[in-house]
Amino acid sequence: MSRSSTERFVEHFVASNELLQDELDGHRECFVHLINGTLANGVAESYLRTLANFHLDDTILSMAVDVVRDHMIPFHVDESLTTVDVCGTGGDGQNTFNISTTTFFVLAGAGFHVVKHGNRGVTSSSGSSDVLQELGIPVVASLETLHKIFDEVGSVFLFAPSFHPVLKHVVPIRASLGIRTIFNVMGPLLNPANPTHQLVGAYDEQAAQTMAKTLHRRGVEATVFHHLDGYDEWVPFGRGSCYRTAPQQAQVIKSERSYKEFHVPQASEKDLHGGSIKENAHILRQILQNEAEAPKIDTVCMNTAMAIQTIHPDTSLQEAMERARHSIASGAALTVLESMIKVSHVDS
């Protein structure tokens, strides 16, 4: 489909305000032109704004993910390794500290190969890469350096723009829209290392269900969840919905969990508030030094425990929490951070 015919398709889509399965090819062409920068910004904005009016559809999401993955730069790891990513969609508007980024280090300190995929803050002021840079880890690095970090430390952070250069065309469009779009949901599904396992937090329940279906299509073992108080991470109050995927399962399995199952004291929303990039980096280091307030440490351990259970479903939640707490208390999580900083700068 040419650019002009794609623009006509967008005009039809916006005017009809209908999301039809038999128009999937038209939507695919829209995404091809969108990521290649060959769709006028105004047309692209109209398309994404209209698409955001609908409940997220796993057929559309899977198609969009496939289009972007066809253009990505892969990060190759030994296929025999068990690898895991921990990330959220962002866009939950809760102003928390960087929970999944801190979980990255605690999970790595517990002995797992974490390949975390992340970006700068788009819908928040402090994305994972912003905090890592503040801590002294250069996120824009060569493939050679990233492989060296993974080989020597056992885990690595993969900066999304380095592996998805075509998405640079989408950045100004997302910024001008200022709303959640399908790209918020796509991010956690685009890890260039193709991890065997994923723990994904979603900003709402419908997004969680659709992301889980998309991961299930790809044969990834995953837990996708949404905390019913509006968070895309596990927090020490309330309850959340979990969607579990595994290749051997015929379908996604839903369950609900309460913070009480983690055996942590109830906290409040303000206990989890973050701040600027500098403040969030300080909080992360405090947690890894086991010097932060208990609710923040509990929150990171809860998310780490859920990741451990995703990899080892037979592990009890109590045992997974103990492994997470030991990663912090033993200094192993902090060692991962310090090692990553050291290896990152060896050849710089």
Outline, from the CA principal axes? globular
Any idea how many domains?
2
What is the averaged pLDDT score?
A: 93
Please, what is the CATH homologous superfamily of the largest domain? Nucleoside phosphorylase/phosphoribosyltransferase catalytic domain
| Low-pLDDT stretches | none
Helix content: 40-55%
* Main sheet properties: 7 strands, mixed
In the CATH scheme, what's the topology name of the largest domain?
Pyrimidine Nucleoside Phosphorylase, Chain A, domain 2
Total count of helical runs of at least 4 residues: 15
**What's the CATH class label of the largest domain?**
Alpha Beta
Strand count = 7
Please state the second-level CATH architecture of the largest domain.
3-Layer(aba) Sandwich
Cα gyration radius (Å): 20 Å
Element string (H = helix, E = strand): HHHHEHEHHEHHHEHEEEHHHH
Distance between the termini: 45 Å
- The proportion of residues in beta strands is 5-15%
Secondary structural class: alpha/beta
> Strand sequence of the main sheet, in spatial order?
3-2-1-4-5-6-7
